What we know:
Elements (H helix, E strand, L loop, with lengths): L1 H10 L4 H39 L2 H15 L21 H16 L26
Helix pairs in contact: 2-3
Amino acid sequence: MGVMSTIANALGFGNADQVNDAKKAIAQNRGLWQNNYNENQDTLNKYLDTISQAHDDTLKSQYNQAKTDYANIGTYDPSKFQYGKSVEDFMSPAMDMRIKAASDAITNSQANARKYVQFRLSKRIKRKITSYGK
Length: 134
């Protein structure tokens, strides 16, 4: 299987090498993340010890309680969301007045009242032909 995989990768039919490289990178990054976490935790603990020396142990216990509460906060449950507002809650009453005034203006305008306007064409003048041209 190893030989076939190598041949398939060489011909461009497989991606096992890329998958293995990605797995190695993920494992390496996981180690780096854990190291960063440990260093940050050590720095925070040193800071807490420094502050605790200046204050009593209640500050340390409050910090530890806040850290525990934050770690156990959980995730947001969208099924519990309720929203009791509608568009009308945000609209200004003056907007309704402006809309009504604009609607009335259009209704009462000459552009909309064409059924009431009669167009009269002037009568055609009839002329008497007196001579014929050459």
